[in-house]
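Write out this protein's structure.
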Amino acid sequence: MRKIWSVSFILLITVAATYISLKSNLKLGLDLAGGSHLVFEADTSKIPQDRRSTALSGVKDVIERRVNLFGVTEPSVTTSEFEGKDRIVVEMPGISDTKVAIDLIGKTAQLMFVEVQGASPSAQLAPTDLTGADLESARVEFDQKTGKPSISLKFTKEGGEKFAEITKRNVGKQLPIILDQEIITQPVVQEEIRDGQAQITGSFSLEDAKKLSIQLNAGALPVPVNLVEERTVGPTLGAISVKESVLAGGVGIVMVTFFMILAYGSLGLIADVGLFIFAVITLALYKLIPVTLTLPGLPGLCFLWGWRLIATS
């Protein structure tokens, strides 16, 4: 009875994995899907050393949001350092015409505080003269009463004066904060704030609070970025690479499969069945996680299957 249950369970897993492998698409890297590889250099020379990491994280976050708004499927945005200079590497699969994307990414982050005029649903947003240039810093703190994460804002002297006038006019109203024409938070003004320091509270998780503080600092610390490298990978090259790699791997697996049957007979056939089950489960996991498959990864995948076949035998 135990053997029957074990076989049934293996068959169920195999069927499910086969279905996932056939219905879902693999997440392909830039070298296989084709697209654009852009490298931007961030000018952090005017930012204090202790705040450069925060500023760079903010720039990375802004670029990620801009790339997502551009409609790119599965983009990759990472930071790196080259010869002492901070860089942001952007990979956009499926995008060959990068002019619009470069123009969009290269803009300096614009943070604005706006007022709500009128009642819903006809309410309108009116920009104020309070911008990211007036914000000195934004950091995560914990509310002393509730213990929940909150964001503490500190304005410059001139920014504090502007903020005092704005809060005086908007007590009891929302004060949306916009970054790159997108509302990132809409706190309600509880009272007039005259000392240039404010706190944004709400039902934030710690992760959400950190993300919001990075977004605010991205606007408060505008970092210019310059395009230093642009490379385009054609989808034809990627398709050819996939086809040739899959063909080579398939031929190798077929040869090893026949060898196992000739050398070990029925035991070799059992090992081949085990390889098939292992292969479909691996593919299903690659698609569910998902794992980004690149050209160097294809031979590695075939090697893994071959090693598994030898180990099974």
